[in-house]
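CORE FACILITY INTAKE
Project code: CF-77B
Contact: R.S. (postdoc)
Sample description: multi-component assembly, two entities in total
Requested service: structural model of the whole complex
Turnaround: standard
Below are the sequence entries exactly as provided by the requester. Do not edit them.
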Amino acid sequence: MNAIGVSVPRLEDDRLLRGQGRFHDEIVRPGQLWLRVVRSPVAHARIRGIDVEAAAALPGVVDVITAADLAGMPRIPVRQPSPGIDFTPYLQPALATGFVQYVGDPVAAVLAEDPYLAEDAADLVALDLEELPVSLDARAGATLRPESRPGESALVGTVDFSYGDVDEVFATAPHVVAADLKVGRHSGTPLEPRGLVAEWNARARRMTVWGATKVPYFNRRVTARMLGIAEHQIHMLESDAGGSFGIRGEFYPEDLLVPFLALRTGRPVKWTEDRTEHLIAANHAREQEHRIELAFDERYRLLGLRGEAWLDTGGYIRTHGAVVAALTSALMSGPYRMAACRSRVHIVTTNKTPVGTYRAPGRFQHNFVREHAMDLAADRLGVDPVELRRINLLDGGELPHRRPLHVFGAPMLLDGKDHLEHFDKSREIFGYDTWREEARRAREQGRLVGTGCAVILEKAGLGHDSAVVDVGVTGAIRVAMGGANVGQGVETVMAQIAAEEFDVRTESVTVVLSDTDILADGSGTFASRTTVVGGTAVKLAAEQVLAKARRVAAGLLGTDPDRLVVRDGGLEADGEPGRRVTLGEIAAASFAPPYVRTGEEPGLIGRGTYLADAMTYPYGAHYAQAEVDPGTGAVKLLRYAVSYEIGRAVNPALVHAQLVGGTVQGIGGALFEEFPYDERGMPLATTLGDYLWPRASDLPEIRTEIFEDSPAPGNPLGVRGAGEGGTAGVGAAVANAVRDALRLTGTVGALPLLPDRVMTLMKSQDDDGATT
Amino acid sequence: MTTPIPLELSANGAAHTLAVDPRRSLADVLRRDLGLTGTTVGCETGVCGSCTVLVNGEPVRSCLMLAAQADGTAVETVESLAENDPTSGRLNPLQRSFKENFALQCGFCTPGFLMLGTALLRKEPTADRARITECVAANLCRCTGYAAIVDAVEAATRTGDAFGPEDQEQEGADA
């Protein structure tokens, strides 16, 4: 009973360290064909014709298809509808139909005997495209009616989460501070490119699909509907995935093309994108323009927040629908006491790569916007930025705190213990006052050093997931759960949760994730939900196994079930260690008529489904100390720290790993990464030499502290979800540190803070200084 | 298609004679022709380093090297690291150090970092943290934030292990 709370080594590591991983490209089927997607080279055009003749004639090419071959097939649906918004005109077909909407839009698919040949053939597909005017700015383009969507506006819809009488508050507030801020276009860009393998077995009339992740069950339902076959004819098998970060595993056009072509040709089909395809075709994220206003009273108390934002959703609406907009909007007021808030997000199509959810969707953006505006307000009001936060953070006397909002259908109840206490405690632990003092002294010596902090409200655990736990006659324990392993160590964590119940070693538990033949339904891995929701389902399933085991063992041992305790993978009479049966012996006995006659499922099998009635709201704080190079504008982080309320850490080392890794991704978005486009909508970052992830030499030591001060009241494990808190506050803390280093009177304007942007900021500051 | 060209190389001590399309990368030949799928390919443009293998002891981006250029060389991949057998042998001290330090998450970059670390530990068995960080900065990881990878390599410098090629070859080289 001591598996939870321990940093046990990961079950995943042994195979990965040997180079024996099970990534999708390790699946090689006899007779396998290779898919290459032909993509639009222009951002917006009418398709006048596609000539596939030369490609189809190339020796080794088996099939070439265009939209004409998919006639009548529905478009890719959204996973989550958004009340009041009709996404239908904006959904993406598997192959572009009539028009192309961005560079990278799939227009044809080529199947060949060899991947090199497939690429050769794809180059021979001739496109006749009539270019149309492009829209590349969500705010400026919100009123457009592009001819590629007759009768439709570029504005897909507006998400609005508001409470209180905001306009009244602003009309009478003693102080109002406003800022206009932008966040650049980023993406999760996992290291393993996307890929899928599908095989149609004509005799069994079944399709096997390898490589789905994130939401395999949703993807199976979509595949079934689009192909017109039954869900039970499709077997989705999870493979190792080289990172997701929210990007990988959504249902993309290629997720239809691969099984479609396997069905059409009767041969196994593999698709692996190359890096350039990934950077123009997989979901982008984050590009938003914001206007924010904060209202304060004479004692620096926040009276209200008014926000409006334009979200650049790219050429189509993808599976997330309006999730990014909703999360931007609903949690805009953060962990602060605030009587009124209005936060609107306009979702606008442009002619760029479509966007989706990327680790801390909406929160990376709104935390930057709100927390940067808080620092601006502190200056304007003449109060210390730390003190301004302290005055307004919700404290223990006010929590749990109900916001008069519903998020994804559930009431918004902030279920933490004390946001102010967290902030005070983490500043003390990290010595933030000392960081500030160091920066002050460095500035006295003429260096451009500054500090910044940000407080964040996170969210985790949403919807339901399911698990089945079975114990065989050998005593082997297997857990099947509906989530996916995308590198975070969920296999280990699920094994720990089961090991805790059965009092066995974690490494003795086998975990299978999202195998649709073993577990009929699951939800998946997103929204920091896997441990919260899936982990709870595993616990419930294991408890059900033990409930039956207890009854069978009581019969075998001739004792009262309540007297039995679980010990070392068996049940024994309390206080009589000799009177014991193992789980394997119990499993073997459970097939006897008395236990089958009950109508229960034979054997030791437990099933659990857990529905989170509402999200849990973890929270944290980010701290940065940065130095700007006056000659180049390059920002170097000198110190970074994150504190996070996890509720309960199943595996503390893995929680720290999520925070550190998430923070470094956030640093990428704050300082290095961006997808720029030229004026014709040509993407300019198409290799990892253009889209710059942080490297080891770019980073300071990242300090992390996890607190377990406030177990989540909503789930029996008390866990809060670890995946996104490291990322959510980085843009905010880094922007505040740079603003402090440069002693800006205004804002940094936009993220990422690339050297040229910082040089511009320094120059404008100098100009301001010269004129005042 | 052009005429295949002959290629002889040793991979993890085993001699191979092949005929390859001149445009095939070393990474593709390792993965598809020799079944050494531990070497992963993340970008195909030499930026990420996940495909790093050792060619005559030097770390090389196997996506950028044509297989034909590897003619006559000795190639080492991640499959060479575990003792005796890649699938069942004991993990070597660097692999164990990665596990103990939680230096991998999705594991896709891991073979590249292991081979990069192997080359460093052979040449500079007492490399300090700054030097290790400099070396680790050659490759990309999207999950870990790198600190744990640096920790793992640093811890391996304290094991006293040589991280040399297989003992036999080592003896041959010494003789």
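Facility notes:
- The mean pLDDT of chain A is 96.
- The two ends of chain A are 68 Å apart (CA to CA).
Invoice: internal transfer
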